[in-house]
């Protein structure tokens, strides 16, 4: 990057996540940026250097993404910023990145921390944290640690995502920035606003100079968007040709509001001590309306055939608010050769769904004739015109629900380290402990309004024609009328809700779970010439308790489970400097992850010879991990690296049917979760990045980056006296990124592509491999540009999903739909003002 005149202060270009992430995977040291008196230049290379310094000195295999000079991550939320790091892929919801998978390990088996404290999950059945809850403006850096040292929580199989919020010591003196953005969703033709800002400054307390810092950030966005969907749920009959049993069309209309706020304090009274208070609050509110129109064929059909079918229309209308709040108080003090660190953390996540329509179903009064479909991948419904007449449908039932989930994590830890000399070599012993207390509870209240004719409502009162509000704008074919949620609410308001209370649904889904973890560790680091070694062991003792209710043939029973287990987790890390440009890394680690709360749920339903239940007695997942890699850097922002990894996983969890076996021998089905014996995952990560600043202008502004991860897995599942091998769910064999960028003092351009191959999304019955569900490969292409109108004012443009990539899930073979959903591209235009 060219330096400006000595009297000019340039705000930073928007960082290229792909380039940074590729470089970040290598952990090498870049050259120090040239600093001239009275000159402040912030650009991509400077931001990359910050990440490289952290990673080169790290004792872990890790990757870092930094906010750029104007306090912005390069993508709208933390999940999308991470997706371009080698070995990472993103699960999307309505086209937006949400959950992060690391090296093929599903999101529930990785952990997320904010400023050093664990982030609990707001969803009732998951451990995974949806990172789109965190607006990018509140994040200073993101680190993905792929090999854990003994002083870290051992609760991740793939990696730990560490989120650091902004600090006043990230900038010299007063810093503030503000942004305004408008986006356009091509699928719904809706426009949406976004505003964000950050400010920080340092102050002098006592005899110190600029030793106290305050930083704050605020972000607000309201986005109107939607998607079109057609799905079969995998309802294919493969016995006599390939015939379809049912299909459903869906239209989603969503308003998503994000609000985030962070306020942080730092105090450094001298060179030997530092203290901090980190706070973060994020609120994520979804208002969703889903219209559905579906059919069930009287006889399963081939494409092009026609016959009778039952039809229905359905509405779901709900508001869901997720909140994440985190408070971390800590400090560090050096006392001679000793360093003492303490930290106390409190985090709470919640999901609140006030009363709303979980499902309102209108059934066809008679069968519809001449019903059929074409295209097995994206089924198109062909049916008699009577299907689109609302007067041919009658309200059959309404499911009305409210739900509140709360997940709280409290922890306190102490770390002590002492530097010493071991036979002339620098060494450090470090030990400490951590107490964690986690509580998760779920409260669901449900009502089921059915047999409405028995409470005095006539067929005319329940006719769909009384509840419509115009035609649905559906891009995959003809849909017909939409359903008014307000009209349904008015109808229910005239009924006695106590008559429709669903006690079974309400009680079986309620639970209280607690997870207490006591941990301690001992580790030692040793530097011998060009070698650095870290050896140690971590102990974690866990006590888990679950309380809930079940129902057995109409009779409720209280349930309680209490389990205890201990783990000793040794680890060894080594780093060798081959030459000033090249280093080797190796790590042997052991980790343990608890099953998801949905898998551990204490509730059960037993009805005759059918049963479904969670399994609070599940063993935790254990993994032995090996990592080997080589990193070579080529000047500033030029890197090539290769890593191989291997994971041997014991007691992985899968869904199974125990019907016909053991104590369930007399049951036709008994659906639950079980531990598998072992699974293996291994792979190769390759990364390359280069800035061609030695070329003549304009080619000296060119940036190129690429990375790819190739992995394989093998797991064995059992049930009903049978067994078979599967891939690990959510594991893509190939994940890759490619970026082409260009920048000078005023203009920055980036074209990036993100690819993920197909993966196993859901396992069918043990004897029904043909109905396993797979998510198809995806290729997302994005473009971004930034232009400085003045040294402090930047105009930005982004185009996301230029390839109009869809989400496609198939049943067994790629030709047979389980779900198809498309979103369209999104375009954004914004202004950012920054003062350094």
Automatic annotation (TrEMBL):
It is found in: Cell outer membrane. InterPro entries: Beta-barrel_TonB (IPR000531), Beta-barrel_TonB_sf (IPR036942), Plug_dom (IPR012910), Plug_dom_sf (IPR037066), TonB-dep_rcpt-like (IPR039426), TonB_rcpt_bac (IPR010104). Residues 56-160 form the TonB-dependent receptor plug domain. The keyword Repeat does not apply. It holds the Pfam family TonB_dep_Rec_b-barrel. The keyword Membrane applies. Its main location: membrane. Residues 365-802 form the TonB-dependent receptor-like beta-barrel domain. Keywords: Cell outer membrane, Membrane, Receptor, TonB box, Transmembrane, Transmembrane beta strand, Transport. It is a multi-pass membrane protein. Belongs to the TonB-dependent receptor family. NCBIfam families: TonB-Xanth-Caul. This is TonB-dependent receptor. It comes from Pseudomonas cuatrocienegasensis.
């Amino acid at each position: 990057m060219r330096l400006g005149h000595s009297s000019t202060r340039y705000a930073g270009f928007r960082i290229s996540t792909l380039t940074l992430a590729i470089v970040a995977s290598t952990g090498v040291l870049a050259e120090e940026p040239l600093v001239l008196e009275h000159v402040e230049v912030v650009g991509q290379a400077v931001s990359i250097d910050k990440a490289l310094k952290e990673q080169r000195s790290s004792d872990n295999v890790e990757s870092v993404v930094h906010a750029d000079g104007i306090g912005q991550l390069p993508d709208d939320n933390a999940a999308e910023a991470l997706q371009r790091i080698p070995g990472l892929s993103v699960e999307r919801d309505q086209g937006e990145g949400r959950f992060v998978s690391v090296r093929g390990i599903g999101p529930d088996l990785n952990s997320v921390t904010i400023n050093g404290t664990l982030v609990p999950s707001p969803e009732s059945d998951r451990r995974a944290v949806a990172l789109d809850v965190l607006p990018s403006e509140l994040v200073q850096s993101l680190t993905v640690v792929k090999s854990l040292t003994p002083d870290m929580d051992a609760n991740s199989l793939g990696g730990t995502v560490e989120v650091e919020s902004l600090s006043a010591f990230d900038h010299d003196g007063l810093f503030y920035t503000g942004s305004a953005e408008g986006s356009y969703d091509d699928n719904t033709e809706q426009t949406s606003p976004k505003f964000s800002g950050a400010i920080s400054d340092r102050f002098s307390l006592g005899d110190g100079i600029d030793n106290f810092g305050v930083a704050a950030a605020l972000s607000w966005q309201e986005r109107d968007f939607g998607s079109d969907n057609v799905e079969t749920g995998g309802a294919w009959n493969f016995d006599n040709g390939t015939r379809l049993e049912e299909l459903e069309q869906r239209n989603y209309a969503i308003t998503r509001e994000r609000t985030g706020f962070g306020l942080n304090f730092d105090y450094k009274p001298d060179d030997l001590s530092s203290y901090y208070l980190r706070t973060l609050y994020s609120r994520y509110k979804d208002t969703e309306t889903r219209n559905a129109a579906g059919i069930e064929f009287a006889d399963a059909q081939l494409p092009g055939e026609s016959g009778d079918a039952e039809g229905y229309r359905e509405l779901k209308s709900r508001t869901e608010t997720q909140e994440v709040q985190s408070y971390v108080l800590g400090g560090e003090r050096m006392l001679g050769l000793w360093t003492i660190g303490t930290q106390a953390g409190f985090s709470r996540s919640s999901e609140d769904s006030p009363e709303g329509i979980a499902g309102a179903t209108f059934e066809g009064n008679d069968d519809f004739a001449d019903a059929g479909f074409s295209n097995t991948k994206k089924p198109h419904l062909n049916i008699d015109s009577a299907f689109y007449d609302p007067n041919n449908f009658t309200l059959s039932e309404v499911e009305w629900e409210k739900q509140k989930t709360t997940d709280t994590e409290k922890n306190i830890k102490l770390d002590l380290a002492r530097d010493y000399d071991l036979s002339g070599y620098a060494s450090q012993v470090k030990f400490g402990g951590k107490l964690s207390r986690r509580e998760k509870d779920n409260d669901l209240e449900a009502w089921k309004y059915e047999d409405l004719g028995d409470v005095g409502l006539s067929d005319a009162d329940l006719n769909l024609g009384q509840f419509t509000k115009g035609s649905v704008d559906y891009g995959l074919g003809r849909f017909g009328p939409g359903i008014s949620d307000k009209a349904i609410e008015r109808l229910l308001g005239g009924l006695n809700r106590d008559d429709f209370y669903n006690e079974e649904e309400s009680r079986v889904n309620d639970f209280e779970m607690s997870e207490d973890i006591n941990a301690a560790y001992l580790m030692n680091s040793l530097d011998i010439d060009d070698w650095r070694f870290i050896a140690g062991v971590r102990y974690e003792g866990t006590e888990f308790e679950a309380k809930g209710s079940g129902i057995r043939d109409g009779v409720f029973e209280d349930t309680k489970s209490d389990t205890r287990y201990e783990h000793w987790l040794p680890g060894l890390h080594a780093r060798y400097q081959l030459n000033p440009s090249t280093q080797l890394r190796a790590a042997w680690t052991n980790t343990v992850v608890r099953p998801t709360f949905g898998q551990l749920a204490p509730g059960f339903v037993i009805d005759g010879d059918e049963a479904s239940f969670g399994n609070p007695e599940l063993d935790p997942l254990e993994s032995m991990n090996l990592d080997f890699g080589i990193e070579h850097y080529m000047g500033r922002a030029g890197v090539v690296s290769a890593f191989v990894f291997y994971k041997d996983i014991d007691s992985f969890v899968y869904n199974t049917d125990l019907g016909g076996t053991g104590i369930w021998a007399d049951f036709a089905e008994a659906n639950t979760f079980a531990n598998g014996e072992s699974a293996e995952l291994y792979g190769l990560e390759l990364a390359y990045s280069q800035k061609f600043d030695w070329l003549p202008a304009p080619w000296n502004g060119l940036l190129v980056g690429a990375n790819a991860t190739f992995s394989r897995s093998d797991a064995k599942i059992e049930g009903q006296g049978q067994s078979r091998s599967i891939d690990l769910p959510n594991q893509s064999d190939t994940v890759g990124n490619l970026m082409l960028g260009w920048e000078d003092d005023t203009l920055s351009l980036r074209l990036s592509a993100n690819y993920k191959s197909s993966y196993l999304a859901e396992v069918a019955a043990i004897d029904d491999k043909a109905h396993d569900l797979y998510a198809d490969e995806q290729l997302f292409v994005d473009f971004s540009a930034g232009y400085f109108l003045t040294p402090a004012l930047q105009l930005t443009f982004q185009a996301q999903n230029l390839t109009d990539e869809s989400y496609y899930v198939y049943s067994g073979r790629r030709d047979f739909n389980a779900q198809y959903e498309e979103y369209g591209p999104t375009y954004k235009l914004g202004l950012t003002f920054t003062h350094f």
